[in-house]
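Final report, section 2: Outcomes. Of the targets proposed, Alanine--tRNA ligase is the one most frequently requested by collaborating groups, and we therefore present its record in full.
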Amino acid sequence: MRYMTSEEIRESFLSFFESKGHKRLPSASLIPDDPQLLFTVAGMVPFKPIFWGKVEPVYTRVTTCQKCVRTNDIENVGRTPRHHTFFEMLGNFSFGDYFKREAIEWAWEFVTQVLQMPEEKLWVSVYEEDDEAFEIWRSVGVPERKIVRMSKEDNFWGPAGPTGPCGPCSEIFYDTGVEVPVPEGQEPTPANTDGRFIEIWNLVFTEFYQDEEGKLHPLPKKNIDTGAGLERIAAMMQGVYWNFDTDLFKPIIDRIQEVLNVKYKEDPKKDVSIRVIADHVRAVTFMITDGVLPSNEGRGYVLRRVLRRALRHGVLLGAKEPFLYKIVESVVSKMKSVYPELLDKRSFVENVVKNEELRFISNLTRGTEMVHKIASSTGGRISAEDAFKLYDTYGFPIDILKDIARENNYALDEEGFERYLEEQRERSRKAQGEVEFAAKTGYEGIDLETVFVGYDTLESKSKVLKIKFGDQFVESARDCDCEVVLDVTPFYAEKGGQVADTGVIIGRDGKFEVHYVYSPVEGVIVHKGRLNGSLSIGEEVQARVDEGKRKATMRNHTATHLLHAALRKVLGTHVRQAGSLVEPARLRFDFTHYQALSDEEIAAIEDLVNEVVLSAIPVEIEVKPYDEAVKEGAIALFDEKYGDFVRVVKVGDFSEELCGGTHVKNTGEIGLFKIVSEGAVSAGVRRIEAVTGLNSLKLFRTLETRIRSIRGIFDVPEEQLVEKIQRLVEERKRLEKEVSELKRKAISVEDIIANAKEYGGVKYVAHVFDGVEPEVLKQLVDDLSDRLKGPVLLISKLEGKILFVVKVPKELTSDYHAGNIAKAVAQVLGGGGGGSPTFAQAGGRSVDMIPKAVETFEKIVRKEV
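The predicted structure is given below as tokens.
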């Protein structure tokens, strides 16, 4: 068996299946077009609608190398040879074409003839009831003793999510020969040993659909879905047991050793950290490249979790400052030939990673010290209350706390922590109002299809297919809020950032006011609204979209495309859409960029868009092959992997994007484009809001009215307004400074110091004022902290609100953190805020809780919490 690089393995697999009549397709994004999944977790995910029978395939045979992310076993990463968060899955797929015999024969041909793996090293498994697969394996030459029957738990795949396609599977194992325990008197097999036989290929015979209740239904067409782990095959072909010793990881580990000045394979504990970093930096690099950005929910939370785990292991290796961003380059260098988008986004990825590291590294170091202090004072026990306080007050992630507890044999009350967390969520829901989109819509598994004609018309003659009242489908309805499904509709269902259409559906004896339109499952469009009168299944109706709102939405949607193109021309091609909202009144566009836009940049963007508008360029819409569209330069804002044909929206040579939304026919219809606001959404993401058409006119009329009113107040000509306001602002600042100084002089610092307390040689004081302004508090807290050489809390009740400041001398920041103290105090006062280790300010609403807030401050200083 010859040595093969990962590049050679990847290419030989794809080429082999091309020779068997398969269409080679590029990897889909890690962000799936699937509401059930956060990430693409398997090679078959992009093809789920085909397996479901919802979409007809363009090609009946496909082969891919799919990038995947899974974090369900993240605790094992770095500790075992083959657990990863990011991995590549080689796959060949049949959509109603060939089935078990060809799938098995070709898999065996590839591993024995192309990879030249010795047959004596190979074993296979089959589902215990799958006699057909057993016989096929025997017919290709596998001895019966090496065909192992396994249970449904081991050899029945899927679905990838709560529902979906699934079926029995068959696996190929490679015998590494490593010494492991074997039941006495038995030959070692994949069924009776652990760690010796490595699964390198899983052939799934997809012939069932599992519904919400777990019941299996035969699929209209039998399919093949296979997955061969590139990392595992590379380990076997390169003669190593650990995936981390393959060429996929070696350059990354080399870079980690260089950046962190550590040596691999000298210290087992350090080796775990090095492997964790190597794995996680791959996942982080690919996730950010595909458009995931750090946040506190959804995909962004998973990214943040992975990134922070890697950062924590860097700290264990001695890192004192951001380092992970320096390792990104090694991932890009290794993988850019297969995934060129990595090279295009390299600097952006490095910026995102570095900024996230800067936000967290000091907090991580401080939090880790607090964990060990708690454990040392409690005999190695971390209570639920302590865990939740670390999480809620100091922002210390529970995942990292679990890691530390496991590594140091601390007893962590995880169940109690989850109870505290759920109580907090419940409080939050009550405070904000619970908003939840139910995963189960009731339309799953129902044979329905709606034809959308809204690209060409705003009216249609339609027939009622379904009526849903509450949770039940009914034959007819009268005078109620309900949902209606039509066979044909001009109503656009909310998708891709564009809001749903509104309008009416008029029947024989009723009028249904459409308030919202959505697509719960592929191919079904649901109209939600108010029925006045009656409506029945099978009834002929007239569906009519609100023309004014649709046209305003179309103007904003096309303008969004022009804005995206203008941003890339003015700021650079690193700009990528990170979210959007297109509605009749405005457009909102989130994009990747790491600094605020200057006035000059905003003006340049507005000028570019308006030049295109004034040029009255036709908006061309074509349906064409995906590969062709991308080659022409179309920007893919979503992944169209369910067939190779996509909808391309093109505006001359200025903009070309893949988009399923509705658009104007000519840019001249957009009217004036005006940016209303620009600001930050999160680290590395900016947001622009803008208006078009009549909304621009309304904006200018509003501004004109305001200027006229201000001019009347100051009684000066318009050209003198700015100068007049500047003079008034300067005068106000001067007077405020005088008042602050008088107030400060009126306060006796000596009296406050006289009430100071002491703990462990550290003096501290808290004082409450009435009506003292923030600037005065800041001056006082500086003076008091300097003189006491200890922590100070000053609170002011001001016009029904609470303002407070915290100061900690620099020499005490190893024990106290002003920002964390402020957060704890603010929580008591029903407010929020924070700051640096030495100074913080915050606010609150609960005046009656001020004594409790002072008590909290004092307990923190005395280390009682």
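The chain has five domains: 6-242, 250-432, 451-545, 550-700, 747-861.
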